[in-house]
TrEMBL record:
Its cofactor is pyridoxal 5'-phosphate. Phosphorylase is an important allosteric enzyme in carbohydrate metabolism. Enzymes from different sources differ in their regulatory mechanisms and in their natural substrates. However, all known phosphorylases share catalytic and structural properties. Allosteric enzyme that catalyzes the rate-limiting step in glycogen catabolism, the phosphorolytic cleavage of glycogen to produce glucose-1-phosphate, and plays a central role in maintaining cellular and organismal glucose homeostasis. It catalyses: [(1->4)-alpha-D-glucosyl](n) + phosphate = [(1->4)-alpha-D-glucosyl](n-1) + alpha-D-glucose 1-phosphate. SUPFAM superfamilies: UDP-Glycosyltransferase/glycogen phosphorylase. This is Alpha-1,4 glucan phosphorylase. Keywords: Allosteric enzyme, Carbohydrate metabolism, Cytoplasm, Glycosyltransferase, Pyridoxal phosphate, Transferase. Pfam families: Phosphorylase. GO terms for biological process: glycogen catabolic process. It comes from Kangsaoukella pontilimi. The keyword Transcription regulation does not apply. Its EC number is 2.4.1.1.
């Protein structure tokens, strides 16, 4: 496609789809016109992908996920379809600011963090690999809350991405299912019949997901909840207007808002409704598609692989059994076998508080037939494998239910999968030793290198060609170049320019000036005690204190950058945010240290901000308590973009270190085993503090009001925790973290050596592509083959 054809298409959409004259078009209008022009180019490969799948009668993969953290779509679509440069030329020609147009798009935050972003990377890889697949989720009206800081404290505001038209989606009024809740179960001729008390309509909205070079496109199908009857006319006519609109309001709450808590399961009625709503709609949809081409449901496992992204869609097990047994009259055992043949379950956390359990009471109230079937599934399993129950203390354990209903169960890093086998799923693993498999996470190199870091990706392509974009392991071809001074200079230059850009953004948006030659040290992720942002800020305090003690010292300049949201109800995490902001305002205004140390915490961390920060990072903070971070995926994005990691042996850090080499990774801290042992030492925190005067002084600063305008109580909670129970072992890991951080300082001063290490991180991180992960799921779990690439629209 030529630039002029693209221009015609944009202008035509501006005129005929938006009804705007170029003279009066706003940034929004131009952005929508460009998006529609880009979308047009995806539709043909999308249709062809579907046709090819039908023709080949190929096995389909269904990825059921409560969250898809897709972020902005325009830039990715332009890059993947090969028209980015043309689009830029069109807008340059029109005299419009292309960057501004791209940044006008709202960031679709239909997820909390790692789990949701992983789902988005997987969809892109499934399309790039040409595997027939569909993502199923919820079309939340409000994604993850927007974060503001008020006096340093987090304030949440509703997110409203859907107030603007979502240009990428196609509404599908014909793809709609009635989803029931509550009511009773009757017996009719020996068969159970569930008569729900209330029902809503699940209606599909489709977004095409295009892969690299536009060769293949899959669908993200999100369900919106609609009322069965829009208006209760009788009530309306009787003058009761509020009551008349009630059914609509009730139905719509189901897809109204994403739950923002990713650690504690609060047993919310509405959350269980959301889970059943999207799971049931998705199953009905895929069965309908199956039956359009096949007539024997016993063949379902040959044609369909369903991946449950955590336990949120775990009700899929009982629901599938209910459909096959109750509605289609299959034997219970056969129904079980078929369901198990289709279903697979991914576990994303071992934190006990995040493992879903639903009370029998709530389950029986909302899904009475499912509770009966869960009992039966439990009994059947216990008959074959005595000794383990999926129900306990009046609750259904959704992890255990998912495990016994799954063909394969996987963890998301080698360490995590190993830990699953000896902790939460020990008994089940002993009974089913072949069921747990590991699938180490990955990230898409299209978004997380090619698109977000054009300078570095341009340099890479100049050196080794662009094959790495589709085959990231070819980044290893960079290895010989790390000994070439010219290449390393350009590598350093690209990083520096990214830092200058970020510095400008920080200056403009926060009024803080940072030195682009300082080390940019970044920790971005949800705020959790186990991720230990408080360890990082404590080390910052200790460093600041030493700088003040020794103002003539030769310090390595650092900019400590934080980003992340806390769940609204997570009090401790919110105190950590308050502490970081309070420390920032003291340190950033200290004339003695300000040439060496800055603390920057931009509000509202999201996918777009990650795309800005990661390319500019020198150091990646991956400092969770060993054994707690299932994998991490940010850690992979940093390594790919040439940042060095300071990290513990946790999650995928272990594998990153193996790949990039121990010399190119700053390791510190206890291992998962040592962590368990250390916890049994009485007074471990106190012991650690008494042995490290630096730590003692930093903790003291939390208690003496240094960062609280003299208020001794403000951060007492954090101080007491670190010196008391300290479950996450901040105190015990502090000294080693300090040591590693000073090693980082030293290493950073040797700019040539640092550049080499950074370039080696890029060259050796290709394995962490989500293409590798998806290939592995396809062969080890789904038994699904990539279909042949159809056409390369980028070359046309
Ligand atoms: C749990 C809950 C429970 C209560 C309601 C809302 C909610 C939402 C999400 C979750 C799951 C949190 C688990 C999670 O995000 N795990 C992360 O998964 C990443 C992808 O595998 C992995 O890289 C991170 O290490 C892991 O923390």
């Amino acid at each position: 496609m030529s630039t002029s054809a693209l221009k015609d298409s944009v202008l035509s959409h501006l005129k005929y789809s938006l009804g705007k004259d170029p003279e009066h078009a706003t940034t929004y209008d131009w952005r929508v016109a460009l998006s529609l022009a880009a979308r047009d180019r995806i539709v043909d490969p999308w249709f062809e992908s579907t046709r090819a799948t039908y023709r080949a009668d190929a096995k389909r993969v269904y990825y059921l996920s409560m969250e898809f953290l897709i972020g902005r779509l325009l830039e990715d679509a332009l890059v993947n379809t090969g028209v980015y440069d043309d689009a830029k030329a069109v807008f340059d020609d029109l005299g419009l600011n292309f960057g501004e147009i791209l940044h006008d798009e709202p960031d679709a935050a239909l997820g909390n963090g790692g789990l949701g972003r992983l789902a988005a990377c997987f969809l892109e890889s499934l399309s790039t690999l040409g595997i027939p697949a569909m993502g199923y989720g919820i079309r939340y009206e409000h994604g993850l809350f927007r974060q503001r800081f008020e006096g340093g404290r987090q304030v949440e505001e509703a997110e409203d991405w859907l107030t603007q038209e979502h240009v990428w989606e196609f509404e599908r009024p014909e793809a709609a299912f009635e989803i029931g809740f509550g009511g009773q179960v009757y017996e009719n001729g020996g068969r159970a019949v569930w008569r729900p008390q209330e029902a809503v309509i699940a209606q599909a909205f489709d977004t095409p997901v295009v892969g690299w070079k536009g060769e293949w496109a899959n669908t993200l199908r999100l369900w919106g909840a609609l009322p069965k009857t829009v208006l209760d006319l009788q009530r309306f006519n009787a003058g009761d207007y509020a009551a008349a609109a009630e059914p609509e309001a009730l139905a719509r709450t189901i897809s109204r808002v994403l739950y923002p808590d990713d650690t504690t399961e609060e047993g919310k009625h509405l959350r269980l409704k959301q889970e059943y709503f999207f799971t049931a709609a998705s199953l009905r949809d895929l069965i309908r598609r199956f039956e359009a081409e096949h007539d024997d449901l016993r063949d379902l496992p040959k044609r369909v692989a369903i991946q449950l992204n955590d336990t949120h869609p775990a009700i899929a097990g009982p629901e599938l059994v209910r459909i096959l047994h109750d509605e289609r009259g299959m034997e219970f055992e056969t129904a079980m076998e078929i369901a198990r043949g289709c279903l697979n379950y991914t576990n994303h956390t071992l934190l006990p508080e995040a493992l879903e359990r639903w009370s029998d009471g709530l389950m029986g109230y909302l899904l009475p037939r499912h509770l009966q079937l869960i009992e039966r599934i439990d009994t059947a399993h216990q008959t074959q494998h005595p000794g383990i129950a999926i129900r306990e203390h009046g609750e259904v354990k959704m992890g255990e239910l998912s495990f016994i209903m799954a063909n394969r169960v996987n963890g998301v890093s080698a360490l995590h999968s190993d830990l699953m086998k000896v902790t939460v799923f020990k008994d089940l693993h002993d009974m089913h030793p072949d069921r747990i498999v590991n699938q180490t996470n990955g990230v898409t190199p299209r978004r997380w290198l090619r698109t977000c870091n054009p300078r570095l990706s341009g340099l890479i392509t100049d050196a080794i060609g662009d094959g790495w974009i589709k085959d990231a392991e070819r980044l290893s071809e960079l290895e010989p170049h790390v000994n070439d001074a010219g290449f390393l200079d350009r590598f350093v230059q690209a990083k520096r320019e990214n830092k200058v850009d970020l510095g400008q953004w920080i200056a403009e948006s926060m009024g803080i000036s940072v030195d682009p030659d300082a080390m940019f040290d970044v920790q971005i992720k949800r705020i959790h005690e186990y991720k230990r942002q408080h360890l990082n800020i404590l080390e910052t305090i200790a460093l600041w204190q030493e700088m003040r003690d020794n103002p003539n010292g030769d310090w390595t300049p650092r900019v400590k950058i934080f980003g992340g949201k806390a769940a609204p109800g997570y009090v401790f995490a919110k105190e950590i945010i308050y502490l970081i902001n309070s420390v920032a305002s003291v340190i950033n205004n200290d004339p003695v240290t300000s040439k060496w140390l800055k603390v920057v915490y931009p509000a509202n961390y999201n996918v777009t901000l990650a795309e800005r920060l990661i390319p500019a990072a020198n150091l990646s903070e991956q400092i969770s308590t060993a054994g707690k971070e299932a994998s991490g995926t940010g850690n992979m994005k940093f390594a790919l973009n040439g940042a060095l990691t300071i990290g513990t042996l946790d999650g995928a850090n272990v594998e990153i270190r193996e790949h990039v080499g121990a010399d190119n990774f700053f390791l510190f801290g206890m291992t998962a085993e040592e962590v368990m042992e250390r916890r049994t030492v009485e007074g471990h925190a106190w012991d650690a503090i008494s042995k490290d005067p630096r730590l003692a002084r930093a903790v003291d600063a939390l208690r003496n009001g240094t960062f609280a305008g003299g208020d001794h109580d403000r951060f007492r909670g954090i101080a007491d925790n670190i010196s008391g129970p300290d479950y996450f072992l901040v105190a015990s890991d502090f000294s080693d973290y300090w040591r590693a951080s000073r090693e980082v300082d030293q290493a950073f001063r040797d700019t040539g050596h640092w550049a080499r290490m950074a370039a080696l991180n890029t060259a050796r991180s290709g394995w962490f592509s989500s293409d590798r992960t998806i290939r592995s799921y396809a062969s080890e779990i789904w038994d699904a083959l990539p279909s042949k690439p159809l056409r390369n629209i980028a070359a046309e």
